[in-house]
Amino acid sequence: MTHLHQDAVIIGGGFYGAAIAVYLVKQKGFKHVVLIEREAALLTRASYNNQARVHNGYHYPRSFTTAYRSRINFPKFVRDWPQAINQDFTKLYAISRRNSKVTSRQFERFCREIGVEFRAADPVLRTLFEPRLIESVYVVNEYAFDTLKLASWAARELAENGVSVRCNTHALTISKGRETPLQVGVRTNSGTEQLIQSRYVFNCTYSGLNQFAGDFSGIQSSLKQEITEMALMKMPDSLCGLGVTVMDGPFFSIMPFPARGLHTLSHVRYTPHQHWCDQPDLDPYEKLRSYHKASRVERMVRDVARYMPDVWRATYQESLFEIKTVLAKNESDDGRPILFERHTTLPGCYSILGGKIDNIYDVLERLNEVV
């Protein structure tokens, strides 16, 4: 088994892992950084299989902290990744007359409290909604991102900054090192094994945060894992230039998906297929691989069309199935704070989880404190 010495090992080649690797080199002066990704390419799992929404806070009226942080981070993300931002659509938030956890008045007050812009939708846009079911419709300031363009950014920045990217490589163990504080045991798809000695290890594996042997004892926070379905749809002309979210309860979202030129359709009731409490001996990715991926898109469309009849004319293309991981403590308020956990028995090892792409700034702030 060969040995390699690094300043830092980042496990997980999603957007967070790539951004952290670039930050360590450009802002902290690290010279030797390696990024480990078990898939064949970067940003192909949760970073790709999602709504592609750049949040501006509107989505979280029951979690002021999450909403406010999104509002703060939103303009930063648009500034730092302009090549990946899609603003060419009108974003609508609608309030249901029934079963909503927030009223129109509460939503308006909430928007004022976090300092985001909104205005009542004009009559033409309102005609897209069933008035007996929808109380109010608002035009808001929210965008989508193109994951393929983010992946191109990541590949270019990692190469230019000398980060060693190891795809098709599975990190198996995190342990105390011999010559450095930490060591990571990895195995390539071809079966080659290696121990990487390092001063820092950043575990950015999202759903796989607890899937390591060695001296790694797992994270302290409880995680909830879900198998989710995001339906990709070709919308009719009347809905093509729109993104829609109906608040706040058992409703739905329709968002542009720039990487494919389509829209995602997600439904609070039908998008989650299965959920469980995370366990170290139950690999979520293996569970997803063996799951029978039968689409629920017909049920999604049937319910969504009650609120927006034009959805009947949408054409289903395919579904993106993925694992969604959230902190169990935030199930009640739908908040999405970051997890940035230091492992006291493995000095220099940190586990990181973010629920939204704009959380990256919260992660980098914490990173700046510990490195």
TrEMBL record:
<dbReference type="InterPro" id="IPR036188">
    <property type="entry name" value="FAD/NAD-bd_sf"/>
</dbReference>
<feature type="domain" description="FAD dependent oxidoreductase">
    <location>
        <begin position="7"/>
        <end position="317"/>
    </location>
</feature>
<keyword id="KW-0560">Oxidoreductase</keyword>
<dbReference type="InterPro" id="IPR006076">
    <property type="entry name" value="FAD-dep_OxRdtase"/>
</dbReference>
<dbReference type="Pfam" id="PF01266">
    <property type="entry name" value="DAO"/>
</dbReference>
<dbReference type="InterPro" id="IPR052745">
    <property type="entry name" value="G3P_Oxidase/Oxidoreductase"/>
</dbReference>
<protein>
    <submittedName>
        <fullName>FAD dependent oxidoreductase</fullName>
    </submittedName>
</protein>
<dbReference type="GO" id="GO:0016491">
    <property type="term" value="F:oxidoreductase activity"/>
</dbReference>
